[in-house]
Amino acid sequence: MVAVTFDGQELTLVEGENLAAALLAAGVDTFRETPVSGAPRAPFCMMGACFDCLVEIDGTVRQACLATVTDGMNIRKPNGTSDV
Prior knowledge:
- The structure is a single chain.
- The protein is mainly beta.
- Helix content is 8%, strand content 30%.
- The protein has one helix and seven strands; from the N terminus they run ββαβββββ.
- The protein has one helix spanning 19-25, and strands at 2-6, 9-13, 32-33, 40-41, 54-57, 60-63, 74-76.
- A hairpin with a 2-residue loop joins strand 5 and strand 6.
- Residues 1-81 form the 2Fe-2S ferredoxin-type domain.
- GO terms for molecular function: iron-sulfur cluster binding; oxidoreductase activity.
- This is (2Fe-2S)-binding protein.
- InterPro entries: 2Fe-2S-bd_N (IPR042204), 2Fe-2S_ferredoxin-like_sf (IPR036010), 2Fe-2S_ferredoxin-type (IPR001041).
């Protein structure tokens, strides 16, 4: 188990787990909002095709379904239309 933060909230996740799955298991139900309507988005395809799971990880916008949990990750919802 390792400590990460998601939008300032400290979470304890299993190291090496798929990040999207680990965040969902920890109760995170919104990974980002759409830039136009602000509709909440969360993982959908879990294989990198849909981009609904975009998050900012340590300053870089990535798909959570293609990342693994590592100690000390700073994760937050991406801001602005340039991120999606």
